[in-house]
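Narrative summary of target 7.
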Amino acid sequence: MSEFAEFTPRTAPGARLTEADGLRLRPAVAADLPRLAPIAAARERVALERALERFESIFPEASAGRGLLLLAELGEEAVGFGWASYFTPPPAPDSPPNMAPEGWYLAGVVVSPRYRRRGIGAALTAARLEWIAARSPRAHYVANERNRVSIELHRTFGFVESTRDFVYPRAAFEGGAGILFIRHGPWPGESLE
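Modeled conformation, tokenized:
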């Protein structure tokens, strides 16, 4: 089974979930981490304990305002999450010339398989971009070239390929090349004028 969701060109009409359906996005709190771990463990094919440890390691960044961990809930069920964080390249000599640039990165969005293609990933992406917009005029993200679902989702938000020749210490691109994407404003809710 592929670690990436199967790509289909569009969401089925009427399939999008909204607040009227009980969908809610909010910053995760410490008590949410055990609810998010099963989603991450299934996606990454790792033990539940390892997924929980990963959330426990990034949560302090979110608590300190150096990141944002969003929880997507449908009623009382955790159905997805999105993470954004600030990346500072390591100092020389550990930073090669093609190191990814410093800045805010969308660092992952995962939706439970049975709720995919229902607009949750897009809602999590829009919310994280709005949060970044208050902090920076640009955002980045990295993806495996095989992850067509992620690439298409982010394209709809104005991300464009920046380079395939880069180093980003937080990412591994098994089975495909990594791509660094960038997005400059306008941000959600802004016009081009």
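Residues 15 and 118 are 5 Å apart (CA to CA).
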